[in-house]
Each structure stands twice: as structure tokens, then as C-alpha cells.
Amino acid sequence: MALFGIKTVSDMSSVELQNYATKYGKDKNMSDAAVADMFGSMIKKKQAEEAKGKKTKKRKQTGMADRKAAMMRGGMANGRQHMYAAGGMVNDGLKALKKASPEAYKKITGK
């Protein structure tokens, strides 16, 4: 219970308690290990209490059809795997190749 606006350790959240422990250790010129010995169990207890109140989220599992509708794996371009939507195509370098060497472009694409 906080009296006169002063928070006690039992009123603090785990983050507030960690911040308090760090400040306390600096003020008293304590090592990190000494601060951890002094406050570690209290902080872990607070974190456990806070975790009890939270609900865990379950990942929604989607079928393969859902994944295919969103994005499909593309080819390799510039050394990276690319993604495309609904049948697109990755051909970054072909435009530049067409300008630089039309014969090479025709050989690769057949156009």
C-alpha cells in the first residue's frame, strides 16, 4: 500500500522494481552481482505474478490454400529469394540486359 504517494516494493511492477534496483545499486556503489542477489528473487516473483494474469495467444493456423492466395515464392534475383502475388514474375536484370546486349537477351528469353 502506498502511503503519502510513496510506492513500496509490493506496489511496483517488475519493470519499476528493476529500475529501482539499478538505481539503488548505483547509489550504494554495489556490483551488478550484489544487486542481482539482493533483488533478483523479488523481480522474478513479480514477473511470475504478472505472467499469470496474461492470456497466451495461440497462432492461427492457416491452410495451404490461404498461403497460396496471399504470396507465392518467386525465383532468385540478385542472389535473393523473391516473393510475388498471383503468378507474377521476377526479372530485375533482364531489362538492363536487353539494352546492353540484345543478342544475350534473345538467347535467354527466346524473344
Q: Could you walk me through the main structural features you see in this protein, from its secondary elements to its overall organization?
A:
- It is a single chain.
- With about 110 residues, the chain is mostly helical.
- The chain folds into two domains: about 10-55, no CATH class; about 65-110, no CATH class.
- Helices cover about 55% and strands about 10% of the residues.
- It is built from five helices and two strands; from the N terminus they run αααββαα.
- The protein has helices spanning about 15-25, 30-55, 65-70, 90-100, 100-110, and strands at about 70-75, 80-85.
- It has a two-stranded antiparallel ribbon.
- β1 (about 70-75) and β2 form a beta hairpin.
- α1 runs antiparallel to α2 and α4 (about 90-100) packs across α5 (about 100-110).
- The radius of gyration is 30 Å and the shape is elongated.
- The model has no long low-confidence stretch (mean pLDDT about 75).
